[in-house]
Amino acid sequence: MMIATITGVGSSALGSAALAWDISVALGKPVLAIVPGYGVADVILQGMGGWFGFGLYDYLHAKSMVQNSLASLAPRTACIGRALPASTPEAKTLHGGPVFRTGSGSSDVLHAIMEHRERPPGLLIGHSKGALQIGNAIQSLPPDRVHGLNVVTLGCPIAENVAEVAYHQYLGLFDALGQLNMWGNLPDKWVPTWHSTNPALPPAMNAGALTAEALAGQLNNNA
């Protein structure tokens, strides 16, 4: 079973690898890490989407306005650092500058993997805004692409609105940021942690242990 992770706002490639490694060690399986940042425009997109309430941000269509404006006014700037999402099948552009179909580069990459890979991932883990990006990526997929899919969210519950998907959602009791962005979506379990998954910053969420708990008994059956 293929496993993929997406980290939250401001995560570097190193942070993305760290989360994937934590999950890999806990489950004893290889994990694909999707890095959430893809270029100059994502400074705005990541910040607004993560820190000021993704639900309101999405409702006001700010993503589309920012992306379209940058692609129109400075298409070369919009292309900086976006070679990977621009290479996804059917990638959209405006005046030569890339615009995202599912709200962000990492959502587009995950959406393409889920849609075009012969055997799509069976487990997706998202921390913070990464959970929201997973929610965006799986919204418009055909039912056969999400059948039996497990989604684990850490620090940001999302709407459980895709049929055939099993959601396992965790939120910290001391996680003000996650609670700000939950928009009425309740977790399956409250844990005595704050928002971070960094073990050097206690009481951090133990991403590997929580994922193993959520998938107990399933991984061996899907090996």
Features:
8 strands; 223 residues; two-stranded antiparallel ribbon; alpha/beta; single chain; six-stranded parallel beta sheet
As residue ranges, the low-confidence spans are: 48-62, 93-99
Helix-strand pattern? EHEHHHHHEEHEHHEEHEH
Question: Between the first and last Cα atoms, what is the distance in angstroms?
Answer: 6 Å
How many individual β-strands? 8
Largest sheet geometry? 6 strands, parallel
- Radius of gyration from the CA trace? 17 Å
User: Outline, from the CA principal axes?
Assistant: globular
SSE inventory with pairings:
Elements: E1 3-6, H1 13-27, E2 32-34, H2 42-51, H3 54-59, H4 62-73, H5 75-79, H6 83-86, E3 92-94, E4 97-99, H7 105-116, E5 123-127, H8 129-138, H9 143-146, E6 149-154, E7 165-172, H10 176-180, E8 189-191, H11 207-214
Parallel strand pairs: 1-2, 1-5, 5-6, 6-7, 7-8
Antiparallel strand pairs: 3-4
Q: What can you see in these coordinates?
A:
The strands form two sheets. The chain has a six-stranded parallel β-sheet, with helices on both faces. A two-stranded antiparallel sheet has the order 3-4. Helix 1 packs across helix 11 and helix 7 crosses helix 8. With 223 residues, it is of the alpha/beta class. It has eleven helices and eight strands. 45% of the residues are buried. 41% of the residues lie in helices and 16% in strands. It is globular, with a radius of gyration of 17 Å. The protein has helices spanning 13-27, 42-51, 54-59, 62-73, 75-79, 83-86, 105-116, 129-138, 143-146, 176-180, 207-214, and strands spanning 3-6, 32-34, 92-94, 97-99, 123-127, 149-154, 165-172, 189-191.
